[in-house]
């Protein structure tokens, strides 16, 4: 017969085994992708590519961003200098960039041209000759480019991608693009069947980071005077437009909307400057003090140059250091220049002010509020549903 201490020992071992089994069950199995699809956004500050992996989890079709790349092409700069028309050389440069990125991604992920969609962003769609982009991609790549997506639809996809989490009913999205400023909320309503559903309430301002900066630079390229004119334009001319657009959606400005998600090129540059070590985090929390420090850095005579020359030699993890160096290079060389970045941050700051109640809000940068990701999923999900 077993003694009491021995029986207790056996029970202890069984409990440990049970706990280990439960922990193993709680660990998510690795993702096995059913296939990949891609989307190009020919936008105000360049060409961006997203590759989405489709997979199933608990019987539901899901997606994950597995690769993204961005290359600078000055389409909007050409518009400002060419009476609202895209320059032919810039269109050719953009399509050549898409062609090179398409070839690289296709070879890596085993994809065909039919597995990609191409869209021009709402900021580029303002050009009177935007259809020339479609004509050239069809000629060179055999892929059409959609050039007529409304700004509100683009903003809706941004919200779907960025607020697809449990707190979306308390959240506001602010998307500072190169060609326009947009965002909104998901607002609940009771359907005819009695269930709670959500509708998108958007705001849109046709003034983005690159468009605003280029307009000011046409009049004033002295660094000090540029800042002064930029602030005057944002606070005196653009702020009333933001205010009117937000007033059309009163729910955006209520105290209950306690979470602000910020996205867009300038927001990405800010987070890369302030939290370079968080390069792998999809959601990064920040404070208004963090954001104001970034504006102060951009406004200082040597701030941008100091940031460009930053090194990460003290980071011990070689993989993390590589990711940080790559992120830093992208943020300082492939998104906005100093003038465009300052314009984008001042636009975001003005939206913060117009929303109000900032002391009651939490602020986050979201990497995944990228509208083309959700659009790729919608376009190809029928091919992967079981």
Structure description:
This is Ppx/GppA phosphatase domain-containing protein. Residues 1-24 form the signal peptide. Keywords: Signal. This protein is α/β, with parallel strands linked by helices and 386 residues long. The chain has two domains: 35-150 and 373-383, Nucleotidyltransferase, domain 5, CATH 3.30.420; 164-368, Nucleotidyltransferase, domain 5, CATH 3.30.420. Helix content is 47%, strand content 21%. The protein has helices at residues 4-26, 75-81, 88-109, 131-141, 151-162, 209-219, 223-247, 265-274, 288-299, 303-308, 318-333, 338-355, 371-380, and strands at residues 35-42, 46-57, 60-72, 116-120, 145-146, 171-176, 181-190, 196-205, 259-264, 283-286, 362-366. It has a six-stranded mixed beta sheet with strand order 8-7-6-9-11-10, sandwiched between helices. Strands 3-2-1-4-5 form a five-stranded mixed beta sheet, with helices on both faces. Helix 2 (75-81) crosses helix 6 (209-219), helix 3 crosses helix 4 (131-141) and helix 8 packs across helix 11 (318-333). The protein is globular and about 55 Å long. The termini are far apart. The relative contact order is 0.14. Residues 20-26 have low confidence and may be disordered.
